[in-house]
Amino acid sequence: MSTPSTKAQAVAVACGASMDGYLGVTSELSKSITAGNLGPAAYIDGFRTANVWTAVSFEGTWVDYSGVYYGASYLIDAMGFVHLRGLIKSGTVGTLAFQLPAGFKPAYRCIFSVTSNDTFGRLDVLADGTVVPESPCNNNYVSLEGVTFFAEQ
């Protein structure tokens, strides 16, 4: 592999991209590829980087909906945006579903419109990384799809 010539190329290499534009596959990345845990690819100066989804650790009685839906997980892309995905159920609306780790938190509370039991719901992501389905959510299911915000802490 040649030495990166620009800052963007150095970032791409640090994120796992090879200089020839192919995905730099490590043993951990290989496991994620096999498990189907890769998120959308990002490109920096034409170099592809991989994003790996991380499963959440639930609090209370919240759990994955399971079946044909993604489990609740998150990733941060090369531009610093956090993405959530999956379907959760069975918790108490208004209580902590899961906590995002340092580096994956917004600077301020964010409120998102989500689908919940085939209707409108609300999902809050607080500055401390707390993720809370709020009323009018229904605990039959809450979708995390499309929840995206910039990680500032």
What does this structure look like?
Strand 10 (119-125) and strand 11 (130-134) form a beta hairpin. It is globular and about 35 Å long. The protein has helices at 7-14, 27-35, and strands at residues 42-44, 47-49, 54-55, 63-64, 73-76, 81-85, 87-89, 98-99, 110-116, 119-125, 130-134, 142-143, 148-150. It has 153 residues and is mainly beta. It has 2 domains: 7-49, no CATH class; 54-150, Immunoglobulin-like (Sandwich), CATH 2.60.40. Residues 1-34 have low confidence and may be disordered.
- CATH top level label of the largest domain: Mainly Beta
The CATH topology of the largest domain corresponds to Immunoglobulin-like
- The stretches of 5 or more residues where confidence is low (pLDDT under 50) are 1-34
Task: Kindly name the structural category.
Answer: mainly beta
Distance between the termini: 33 Å
Mean pLDDT: 80
Strands side by side in the biggest sheet:
3-5-6-13
Give the assembly state of these chains: single chain
Percent in strands? 25-35%
Q: How do the helices and strands follow one another from N- to C-terminus? A: HHEEEEEEEEEEEEE
How big is the Rg? 17 Å
Question: How many structural domains?
Answer: 2
The dominant shape is globular
Helix content: 10-25%
Number of strands: 13
Largest sheet: 4 strands, antiparallel
Count of helices? 2
